[in-house]
Amino acid sequence: MRLDKFLKVSRLIKRRTLAKEVCDGGGVEVNRRPAKAGTDVKPGDILTLKLGNRWQTVEILATPESIAADRAKETYRVLAEGKTRPGEP
């Protein structure tokens, strides 16, 4: 599944166009590598996202084509989040 679509389906980012902008602007890494919107993602991949002034690291658990909003959090597991990049003091 494309990264921008996963971000939208999982509700990590509300709109796919915004997900594309964040990805193409360098705000997302997949497995510690900068990723563009079209990068393929799969269960087990680790995403690091910079959303505004906040960082979040998640592990992808599932990549369904669509899912109900109340079940979207089942597609990922939060590993870390905060105001600094994970792994930095």
Considering the chains and any ligands shown, give keywords for the structure.
alpha+beta; tRNA binding; globular; 89 residues; Structural Genomics Hypothetical 15.5 Kd Protein In mrcA-pckA Intergenic Region, Chain A; stress response; rRNA-binding; 2 helices
The residue fraction in helices comes out at: 10-25%
Number of strands: 5
CATH homologous superfamily classification:
RNA-binding S4 domain
Beta percentage is 25-35%
InterPro entries: RqcP (IPR025490), S4_RNA-bd (IPR002942), S4_RNA-bd_sf (IPR036986)
GO biological process, one term: rescue of stalled ribosome
Pfam family, one: S4
GO molecular function, one term: rRNA binding
Describe what you observe in this structure.
Helix content is 18%, strand content 28%. α1 crosses α2. The mean pLDDT is 92. The protein is built from 2 helices and 5 strands, in the order ααβββββ. It is α+β, with helices and mostly antiparallel strands. It starts with a helix and ends in a 7-residue tail after the last strand. Strands 2-1-3-4-5 form a 5-stranded antiparallel beta sheet. It has a single domain, classed as RNA-binding S4 domain (Structural Genomics Hypothetical 15.5 Kd Protein In mrcA-pckA Intergenic Region, Chain A), CATH 3.10.290. A hairpin with a 2-residue loop joins β3 and β4.
Summarize the structure.
By secondary structure, the chain is α+β, with helices and mostly antiparallel strands. It is 18% helix and 28% strand.
